[in-house]
Amino acid sequence: MKVELIGPLPPLRGGISQYNNSLLLALRKQGHDVLPVSYRVLYPSFMFPGSSQFDQSTNAPDGSLTTLTAWNPLSWKSADARIRQHGATHIIFEHWHPFFVPCLRYLATHSNAQRTTVIAHNVLPHENAGLGKFLNPLLFREADKVIVGASEQLVQLNALLPECKGEVVPHPAYDRFFTGHSDQSALDRHLEARRRLTIPTDIPYFVHLGLVREYKGVDILLQAAAKLTFDYRLDIIGEFYDKPEAYHLLHKELHLGDRVRIEDRYLNDEEMADRILAADAVVLPYRHATQSGVAMAALAGGCPIIASGTGALADLVKEGENGILAQAGDIDSLADAITRFTKPSPSDWRQRREAVSNRTLKQYSWDSLVNRIMETV
To answer: d(Cα 95, Cα 118) in Å, to the nearest integer?
Structure first.
């Protein structure tokens, strides 16, 4: 089938770009003729709080068009002409923020495709929900199907637009992060990564990875870490979209010292994989969440997660099997969840990494996502 895939792709950074690239590979693997249309840049510089919108260690996928600029209607017309020339029967939009709705709706209403699917990573944005309530339905109404990543998101979609055809398809697992380690057991990969990063194996090692924004609850994690009564190491690594000074000040006030390290920088795929493989658990103390690419990378690598019971995380974590749940926004609950994870010993979890990885890769595959997208509405 001829398919148009509209959304960010490498070298653009971010979770949506990674998701879209993996979906592109899965579509092509199943034999679909895909024309991927990406953006020249995602945001005007005044709207972007990070250091760069690009990951220079990655390349654009073969055959992709880097045509769109969300605030330039001339680029929409240019993309529409190329899309019509391709003659696809199915068009797929990656949607995550109302800023992109005018561009995507233009392409949807001008498309001659027979079917339209919107993958809504956020039914409403993490901030500025009012704008999303006004703009997002304008795109969702053009879709034959809207795919969301969690049951909580489907409830939100039905409340926003009752006539919309919505389906829950969980975020697939990021197995591609670990393809260079496929000949090793999950435990061997873990121990080798600990040696590579010079992290001792006699204390639990926790990580929080990815962009730091207020809703991700890093301040809650710091306060929970201060309540822990055992020896541990926690690394918080990611580019800050909030002011990092507030987090460093909190770190100092809580006297966390070298037990907790904060690094304000972007992680490429290779280092993300190394940290996941080395960690005993990835900690995701989100105040609220839709879905989490970091969680799906962690579980694919066999690393359990300690997470807030919100959004897709509530659906994803099976208590005692692949992680531990805490109450969202509750410092004491998070400290208790981290403590419970260490009893009787983190080594118990290390022995389960193979099972966690295998179960995740089987249950959350990219082929399953493609099959659900391609099902007749």
So the answer is: 7
Residue 290 DSSP SS3: coil
Cα dist. 116→9, 93, 167, 297 in Å? 20, 8, 14, 28
Is-above-0.85 flag for pTM? yes
Intra-chain end-to-end CA distance of the chain, in Å: 16
- Which CA distances in Å does 110 have to 28, 114, 132, 141, 245? 25, 12, 22, 14, 46
Predicted confidence band of residue 130 (pLDDT cuts 50, 70, 90): confident
pLDDT tens for each residue of 147-164: 999 988 999 999 999 999
52 by Cβ neighbours in 10 Å (0-12 / 13-18 / 19+) ranks as: exposed
Which of 243-252, 265-274, 324-333, 368-377 shows the lowest per-residue confidence on average (mean pLDDT)? 368-377
Helices (H), the chain: 15-29, 73-86, 101-110, 129-140, 151-160, 186-196, 218-225, 244-253, 269-278, 293-300, 311-316, 331-341, 346-350, 353-363, 366-374
Backbone angles phi, psi at 240, to 5 degrees: -85, 125
Q: What is the mean pLDDT of residues 94-111?
A: 97
Task: Give the integer Cα–Cα distance in Å for 222 and 154.
Answer: 32
Domains of the chain from N-terminus onward? 2-169 (3.40.50.11930), 175-362 (3.40.50.2000)
User: Phi first, then psi: what are they for 90, rounded to 5°?
Assistant: -140, 130
* Rounded-to-integer distance, Cα 288 and Cα 329, Å: 8
d(CA 271, CA 297): 12
Dig out the tokens for 296 from the structure. Answer: 């799906």
Beta partners for residue 283, in sequence order: 306
Structure tokens belonging to residue 136: 């997002």
Burial class of residue 253 in the structure, from the number of CB atoms within 10 Å of its CB (0-12 exposed, 13-18 middle, 19+ buried): exposed
**Structural element, H or E, at residue 145:** strand 145-148
Secondary structure class of 101 (helix, strand, coil): helix
What pLDDT does 348 receive?
86
